[in-house]
Design a protein that fits this description.
acyltransferase activity, transferring groups other than amino-acyl groups; Acyl_CoA_acyltransferase; N-acetyltransferase domain-containing protein; globular; GNAT_dom; Aminopeptidase
Amino acid sequence: MHTLRFRPETSADDDFLIALYASCRADAALLSQWPSEQRDLFINQQFQLQRQHYLREYPNADYSIILADEQAVGRWYLYRGEAYYELLDIGLIPEYRNKTIGSQLLHELLNEAERVKKPVRVFVEQDNRAQRFYARLGFNATEVHGAHVLLTWQPNYTNP
């Protein structure tokens, strides 16, 4: 089991975040066939567009680096709104995937949301296997937005 913690992301993390973003793309196999300069430019542009979107739509969100035993292993973007929490993004570098880190962080988030009685939302691409992971945690599909599904977890409102 790793000792996990968050720290705020800074501009010094950009190279790490871009590499992480590239490793999480579903079309990585296709992109690997592109010339490296073209691929790197495309990934960088897509990363910057995503970042701009998050900062524009969720300026007060927490943009954090996930540390496992003090090593940067991922990113965690969480918006704590008045009516709900929204997990904007969770991504781990390949060697730390499927090692219970995501589960541990999600359980901690759901425990916090339970205490404050707020639902948790996350958008997932319709063909993303992560939907099964979220379903096991109690998330349900509540809306479809183009290629994405909004999954929502509800706290137990009857618990004091």
